[in-house]
Amino acid sequence: MAQYLEIRAANPDCLLFYRMGDFYELFFEDAVAAAAALGIVLTKRGQHLGEDIPMCGVPVHRADEYLERLIRGGFRVAVCEQLEDPAQAKKRGSKVLVRRAVVRLVTPGTLTEDSLLDAKARNYLTAVFAKATSNTGHGGALALASLDISTGEFEVGEISIADFPGEIARLAPGEVIAAEPLFADAAINQWIAAVGAAATPVPSASFDSLAGERLLKAQLKVADLAAFGGFSRPELAAIGALLKYVELTQIGKSPRLNPPRRAAPGHRLVIDAPTRASLELMRTQAGERRGSLLAAIDRTLTAPGARELAARLSSPLCDAHAINRRLDAVGYLRDNERLREKVRVGLRAAPDIARAVSRLQLQRGSPRDLGAVRDGLGVAATAARQLSASTGIGLPQALAELEAALSGCGVELKQLLERALGEDLPLLRREGGFVRPGYRADLDEARRLREDSRSVMVELEAKYVAHTTIKSLKVRHNNILGFYIEVPAAAARPLLSEPLNSTFRHRQTMAGAVRFTTAELSQTESRIVLAAERALAIEQDVFAELAGAIAAEERALGELAAALAMLDCEAGLAELASEQSYKRPVVDDSTAFAVRGGRHPVVEQALKAAKGGAFIENDCVLAPPASGEPSEHGARLWLVTGPNMAGKSTFLRQNALITILAQMGSFVPARSAHIGLVDRLYSRVGAADDLARGRSTFMVEMVETAAILNGASPRSLVILDEIGRGTATFDGLSIAWAVVEFLHENSKARALFATHYHELTALSRRLAHVANVTMQVREWRDDIVFLHKVMAGAADRSYGIQVAKLAGLPRAVIERAREVLALLERQDRRMGAAGEPLLEDLPLFATRPSPGPSQDPSQTSSRGARAAEAHRCALIAALQALNPDELTPRAALEALYALKELAVAEQNPNPTC
User: Fold this and answer.
1) Shared domain check, 209 and 90
2) Structural domain boundaries enclosing 100
3) Of 793, 753, 755, 754, nearest in space to 773 by CA
């Protein structure tokens, strides 16, 4: 307990997994917390200060399972191992404690075990450093350094504090470390919590740029960082805190580290947090992968390939040359179906080399990690041969570089691993049995003695029978005596007498038998007992030798692993393009935006899966291509009108998703697409409140709209849906009107603006770059048919009552709504005789029951007379408001329908009506 308490005091913010034999045990408050979190039995062991000591424990062989649950529950765990064998400890004294020490701190951002990680997702540990002005408002800057310790992936960048929510959503780290003052900012805490990351405060002194520079040089084994692009002092401060934290949690062990990648906003398409959520890029708004864009486009076959695809989707590029290099590779593999199939068949066997090498580097690897490197090298060699065989038909530069990376590493290492490793590898190195027979002669001898102990003893027994002439002599074994010689009591006298008693020593007399031993038998037994230990020790030496050989090729193996992941990603996107008939987009530095026959990638696949028919494609031309291709609208801002359920939101989202797919280097669901590079993508679609921060739905809408208007540029793409609908009609209309004007005159961004405010369509006559489009619908027998087709023009009705009818509202409510709507539509054209609105003439819903036996006939008659007068006045007003010379055929037809409705509603038999 003294040893436990000393180690526990050194790790106050962790649960202590204290190794005792085959169990990790927890005591005191750790045991109480762990038992509750894990649902295991809380017991007790001994006493401390007169009180029972709470205790619980988990088996060592199931530790990963329990660690996962604790980490998901927000705990940090210090793993305390036995550093020596108990037998060794006894040599120092009978009551000496086994040496123990913490060998690792397990935190959400420092996981390496496959059982604790999502194989298809990165697990970043992100350090955030704020400049002196960053805590004073949105004008400050933040430096971020992010490391996936399980693969060595490392990126660094500097952003404005306004971009932090989108950046943290892009990185989706498992853990964020920062100085305590930064975590005092409630907004930053909430953004971190929104992505499910653990927030870990560290001392402000950890953010030391000089220390960061020194640690990074040591990790990369260089004397100058200029080769990696140079880093600002804030970035080096974030790197310093990150590497110090890794050193602390890994207890001095050094993880594998790729050269840091720059992650500045100018290098990629910036997507803010609300846009990522509303477009459901990585997860649906319910938090599920299924139904997201990532799930719809993922055709990868390996975990590293899936991580590469997710990284591309979360960080689309803003460099036309880099995008087109990716498109060249995808196009080549799509067009060369035979090559693509061969590559994908080979990739199915590709293991996760990056994570295997990382575990070996941290001395946490297993024989299966050695096997993963061996098998990965084999897959890489095969893929390189397949690609090199295609060089005669114009292999794109991107694929040629992958071929070089796959073929330029590890030939000798692969041969060494193939000679040394067996086929069926154990999960744990302490189990042994992973070295191939014939690799080490001394190991083969130890194994023979261990595994052939029965035949060795049979040979020894035969020797003793011949020597003593006692045919009933047997060599036996039990757990108490070990190996011994047994003869029947009647035949034991020769062995107890001269000269045999000098060879056979008496051990035990039984009722019907006597047991003996010999020096030779004891020596053979010792050799057999020690053979297993010796075999295991030799295998551990072999493991260390192979791990060292892998460590020597660490950098090249990292490049090979990345090349395999990229090849899987490219081949998967090519498979998607072929399967779904996606087309290559034109991506350049212009401001064009012309999508012909665009489709929503997720909805289209959902319709196919449900056999619900084909997706209706639509064009979207927000700015004519540079080639001068004619645009039917010639506008960069479209006002999209139409009823609910007609497909406005789908149309808006699909164009945003096509942009993301194009700039990540994928073919797109369209007949053709010309995308001028988009620097920032904004989407304000849907309604949600933020009660935790005291924000109503409308307030959230306004905050997000403000961020869009403040950040959008002429290169941005803006998607807005129903701005202003969360407040009073005239307030909302005014805001929506002003937002459209600002986007047109100030931001000059390419934009889609969906609205039910039909008054906004008048802006197309006042603003040069605004066009009206509407979702096509058809009315049939008082019902509405959605055609999901975008056409030029503006909707003059919202068809809300028809949609409400489709939703199943009671018939009485639908009829009442029609009556109220008919009067409301005329309210702007006519006021009552005394100046009151027409609604004053409208009887309440509750006062319109059918006449019953108990009702007063005079009251019913009076009520009917008033209703008839109201209908008569309404009919006259409607006729007076008509101007036949100004009516289009469609408007005339609708006016006729309205008059008919009034006539049908008139129940008064008065002939004057």
Assistant:
1) no
2) 2-106
3) 793
Say yes or no: 788 and 646 in one domain. yes
Is residue 893 scored above 70 in pLDDT?
A: yes
Q: What is the spatial distance between Cα 176 and Cα 187, in angstroms, rounded to a whole number? A: 14
Q: Categorize the per-residue pLDDT at 315 as very low, low, confident or very high, splitting at 50, 70 and 90.
A: very high
> Residues 724, 729, 730, 733: is their CA dihedral positive or negative?
positive
CB-side neighbour CA atoms (13 Å) of 795: 24
Phi, psi of 634 (to 5 degrees): 60, 35
Q: How many domains does the chain have?
A: 6
Residue with tokens 């290098």: 267
pLDDT in tens, 650-664: 999 999 999 999 999
pTM for the full predicted model: 0.81
Same domain, 823 and 710: no
Q: Are residues 815 and 845 in the same domain?
A: yes
Split at pLDDT 50, 70, 90, the class of 515 is very high
Tokens standing for residue 759: 């008054």
619 in the same domain as 742: yes
Angle between helices 601-610 and 554-580 (to 10 degrees): 60
Residue 538 identity: I
| Domain containing residue 653: CATH number | 3.40.50.300
Q: How far apart are CA 641 and CA 772, in angstroms?
A: 8
Q: Are 204 and 241 in contact (CB under 8 A)?
A: no
Structure token pair of residue 774: 């509407």
Structure tokens at 573: 């996107």
Instruction: Assign residue 465 the CATH number of its domain.
Output: 1.10.1420.10
Angle, helices 453-468 vs 441-451, to 10°: value is 60
Owner of token pair 């988990």: 58
Residue that is written with structure tokens 């088996």 in the block: 59
Q: Is residue 290 part of a domain?
A: no
Strand order through the sheet with 43-48:
43-48, 51-59, 23-27, 15-20, 77-82, 100-106
Give the closest residue to 177 by CA, choosing from 111, 114, 122, 130. 130
CATH number (domain holding residue 125) = 3.30.420.110
- The reply to whether 66 and 190 lie within a common domain is no
d(CA 282, CA 667): 18
Q: For residue range 715-753, what is the model confidence (pLDDT) as tens digits?
A: 999 999 888 777 767 788 888 889 999 999 999 999 999
Residues 597 and 653 in one domain: yes
pLDDT tens digits along 522-538: 988 887 878 878 888 99
